[in-house]
UniProtKB/TrEMBL annotation, chain A:
InterPro entries: Na/Glc_symporter_sf, Na/solute_symporter
Protein name, UniProt field: Solute:Na+ symporter, SSS family protein
A GO cellular component entry from the record: plasma membrane
Keyword Cell inner membrane in record: no
Record organism: Pseudonocardia halophobica
Record membrane topology: Multi-pass membrane protein
Source species taxonomy: Bacteria, Bacillati, Actinomycetota, Actinomycetes, Pseudonocardiales
TrEMBL record, chain B:
Keyword match Transmembrane helix: yes
Keywords: Membrane, Transmembrane, Transmembrane helix
UniProt-recorded name of the protein: Uncharacterized protein
TM region positions: 27-47, 59-80
Source organism (scientific name): Pseudonocardia halophobica
Highest classification ranks of the organism: Bacteria, Bacillati, Actinomycetota, Actinomycetes, Pseudonocardiales
């Protein structure tokens, strides 16, 4: 990510006019206005850090998907579309939808029902303080570092597209994020994520239509892609050998289904607090369950306006054609989105598009910062360092740690601009924590005998397994492609996490059953797991199982179309 | 049903002060798409030359994007009108009563 946007021999600069800048400015005015308006609603730490658990499901659902639809994701997936074509859909379908349904129907009753305010606090309730603290520290560190990476990438983008210098772009972007989160807390972050979702659509949909017109419609695109260097393989999702870099088609499918679809995806969607936090801010159990499900519908459909533009860019932009044919050029696939914007969008809609891209960067950073401040305030400060103070005190801590988090993110961004590879490495390192975390979650949920000590030992052992696999792959001891390496690493982390946790559980003392009610499947009655279906939660179209079946059917239909 | 019991923090917060009740996100969305739509519509009408049309593959992208955004903004405004935010002690927050927005 770090080397991509900077090289600018090809003119990447967008010809933005005053009009475009005005449209961008209007967006930021609205976002700051939201922060200011939301300020009046913050009277406790729970208001600030969890929106007072008051959000309607459509808002949390769109914020849920928006927090994931950051700019790095957007740029990376358009790039994958340009490079691999249709197989990229696996990241959106099998790599997301089953896990989101599982989070909604199986895990949410425990998350929301336990009234935990964060993922680490849930770990405390189910396991013990040590597990909570290990996870809280890891999460806090990784959030700040990833916020810094986001900020740095935003700086690079502003430099390449608009000609702003890094030294100006990074602090300005950070101050805007800081302003609306410190004022309005999570409410402001969630509301701007929903706004961001709609601005992104206003970027992606017209760009896709314009691009398709330019290449002669869907038929023109498929002909050009099938006749291009990638060949017809780029038009079907299975077996996806180019995407996985696994030559054997059977192993490629297994890699996609188990590696991406199970270990990586379940690890990310069910335990990442930046995502789960959006559901915890919902106003009822039913709304909390609906949050990931409402998010799943746009998640299933949005690759149509992300991957197809990527494929169009590879056909339409001469430099990308050269790149695909294996020639020498100064652009990379990560330039695909901005090159296509430049190619097909005239001024006016271009301003909306730039606003959308900037919004996506800031929302990505805001999601990291707003989950960081919650974990820091509740799990590190209130439950560990300084317990027993009045709520007003923790609200102040929450505000201050938001400021400190932003300052740390700026520092990280400037360090990243000095040594980009370190950041890439750290980012992949932190991604190793998801798979073992999911392992102890799932084991703890279904096995009441699992003990607190086994949880944090399993977590660390699983992580160590992933790190070892990663070192073996990068040093070439294991000859795996980078993609296959990450599937194998995550699977190893999961398996080692489960085995070690089981072993340690057998030699340590479990919590008494009375403390595990509502936290373990077999000790939770059906009544505790169901949600109300009255008032605002009434109606078949608000039933979580109905929504879940609907999105699974939708995904199946999409897979049949793009088989 | 907004405020579950049993959390240490936030218990003292009056329910009516929660964020979703104070201003309506649907209005903000209508404002955003409304302003963007009108600006794009005007740009599409007054300052579109053949080069712009060719760039987008033969259609007036600003004009049509503007029109669609105005329609969506009107739908959000209509939604606010039909299901206004219920205030203070009344349970339930607007927005949720009508399901996800149509898009």
């Amino acid at each position: 990510m770090t080397t991509i946007l900077a090289q600018a021999q090809t003119d990447l600069r967008l010809d933005a006019t005053v009009l475009d800048y005005l449209l961008v400015a209007f967006y930021f005015l609205l976002v700051l206005g939201i922060g200011y308006a939301a300020r009046r609603s913050v009277s406790s730490s729970l208001d600030f850090l969890l929106s007072g658990r008051s959000m309607p499901a459509w808002v949390t659902g769109l914020a849920f998907i928006s927090a994931n639809l950051g700019a790095l994701e957007l740029i990376g997936m358009v790039a994958n579309g340009a490079q691999y074509g249709i197989p990229t859909v696996h990241y959106y379908w099998i790599g997301a939808i089953p896990a989101m349904v599982f989070l909604a129907l199986v895990m949410m009753p425990f998350y929301y029902g336990s009234k935990a305010r964060s993922v680490p606090e849930f770990l405390y309730k189910r396991f013990n303080r040590t597990t909570q603290r290990v996870q809280a520290v890891i999460f806090a560190l990784s959030s700040v570092l990833i916020a810094g990476v986001n900020l740095f990438s935003l700086g690079l983008l502003l430099e390449a597209l608009l000609g702003w210098s890094l030294a100006v772009a990074i602090p300005v972007a950070a101050v805007i994020v800081l302003a609306y989160i410190t004022l309005g807390g999570l409410s402001a972050a969630i509301y701007s994520e929903v706004l961001q979702f709609f601005v992104i659509l206003a970027l992606l949909i017209p760009m896709t239509i314009a691009g398709l017109n330019r290449v002669g419609g869907w038929d023109g695109l498929t002909q050009a892609v099938a006749g291009g260097p990638g060949g017809p393989e780029e038009l079907s999702s299975w077996p996806g050998t180019t995407l996985t870099e696994i030559e054997n088609p059977v192993w490629s499918v297994i890699g996609i289904v188990f590696g991406l679809g199970f270990v990586l995806s379940f690890g990310y969607w069910t335990t990442n607090f930046a995502e789960v936090q959006r559901a915890l801010s919902a106003k009822s159990m039913s709304a909390a369950k609906r949050t990931p499900l409402i998010g799943a519908y746009p998640k299933a459909l949005i690759p149509l306006v992300i991957i197809i533009p990527g494929m169009i860019a590879a056909v339409l932009v001469p430099q990308l054609q050269t790149l695909k044919a294996g020639g020498q050029t100064d652009v990379t696939y990560n330039n695909a989105l901005s090159l296509l914007m430049k190619e097909v969008l005239p001024n006016g809609i271009l301003g909306v598009a730039i606003a959308g891209l900037l919004a996506a960067f800031m929302a990505g950073m805001a999601a990291n910062i707003s989950s960081f401040n919650t974990v820091f305030t509740y799990d590190i400060w209130q439950d560990w360092v300084k317990p027993g103070k009045p709520d007003r005190y923790y609200l102040q801590v929450g505000r201050w740690i938001t400021v400190i988090g932003c300052v740390l993110a700026i520092a990280t961004a400037f360090i990243a601009s000095g040594s980009g590879n370190i950041m890439d490495y750290l980012q992949s390192l932190f991604s190793f924590f998801n798979a073992p975390l999911f392992a102890i979650f799932i084991l703890g949920l279904f096995w009441r005998r699992m003990t607190g000590t086994s949880a944090w030992i399993g977590l660390l052992a699983g992580t160590a397994a992933a790190v070892i696999v990663n070192i073996l792959t990068t040093t070439g001891v294991l000859s795996l492609s980078s993609q296959a390496g990450s599937f194998v690493g995550a699977s190893a982390a999961f398996i080692v996490g489960v085995l070690v946790a089981m072993g340690v559980s057998l030699v340590s003392t479990p919590k008494p059953a009375s403390e595990l009610t509502g936290l373990v499947w077999s000790l939770t009655t059906k009544e505790e797991r169901v949600h109300s279906a009255e008032g605002d939660d009434a109606g078949w179209y608000r039933s979580p199982p109905v929504l879940a079946v609907g999105v699974l059917v939708l995904t199946a239909i999409l897979y049949i179309i793009f088989w | 049903m907004a405020e579950p019991n049993g959390t240490r923090a936030g218990q003292d917060a009056p329910v009516s002060m929660t964020a979703a009740r104070l201003f309506d996100l649907r209005t903000v969305l209508a404002l955003l798409y409304g302003v963007y739509g009108i600006v794009l519509l005007i740009v599409g009408l007054v300052s579109t030359d053949q080069a712009d049309i060719d760039k987008a593959g033969g259609w007036n992208i600003n004009l049509w994007s503007g029109l669609v955004m105005i329609v969506v903004a009107a739908l959000f405004a209509l939604w606010v009108r039909l299901r206004p935010l219920k205030h203070a002690a009344v349970e339930g927050t607007a927005g949720d009563t009508a399901g996800p927005p149509g898009h």
